[in-house]
Design a protein that fits this description.
The chain is an alpha+beta fold. It has five helices and six strands, in the order βββββααβααα. α1 packs across α2, α1 packs across α4 and α3 packs antiparallel against α4. The model has no long low-confidence stretch (mean pLDDT about 90).
């Protein structure tokens, strides 16, 4: 890590602390050349491979904006979307891969969105899974109904 004051090529770690969410580490560093102290934040990188082949960093904001469109007019708050985006990121990180396909992110969104709002889930699924006909909607709705009936029978 280069010193931000004198650009010396090395620094030593004085203190390390895990962030509250456990997804990053804050390190306090000191430059052996000028003695300047500075902080760094380290996170595990997670990249998304888009359909076009372009690779870009994972963004919770992009997850939220994509789901927000499906939630228009529904009783879903920004805090609900933030929790959903966090759950999606955690699920994606649990795969252990540093690069993930957009398709896998879409699959990771479907479960939490279904729990949050079923109408928004149908809207998102219809675009994500490219519903072509009414039968696709009917099949998805039938699955939702079957899932609702199953817990009450147990």
């Amino acid at each position: 890590m280069h010193c931000p004051f004198c650009r010396h090529a090395d620094s030593r770690v004085i203190d390390s602390r895990t962030s509250d969410d456990g997804l990053s580490i804050r390190r306090r560093r000191q430059c052996p050349e000028c003695g300047g102290r500075f902080s760094t934040i380290e996170t595990a990188s997670l990249n998304v491979i888009k359909r076009s082949g372009v690779i870009e960093p994972f963004s919770r904001e992009k997850v939220m904006s994509g789901v927000r469109k499906a939630c228009q007019g529904r009783p879903v708050t920004d805090s609900n979307l933030a929790v959903l985006a966090q759950a999606v990121e955690e699920a994606v990180r649990q795969t252990g891969s540093s690069q993930i396909d957009t398709n896998e992110i879409g699959l990771a969104i479907l479960g939490p969105l279904r729990d949050l709002d079923e109408v928004a889930y149908l809207r998102f699924a219809s675009v994500y899974q490219a519903f072509d006909s009414l039968e696709d909607f009917e099949a998805s709705i039938s699955q939702l109904r079957a899932d609702h009936a199953a817990p009450s029978e147990a």
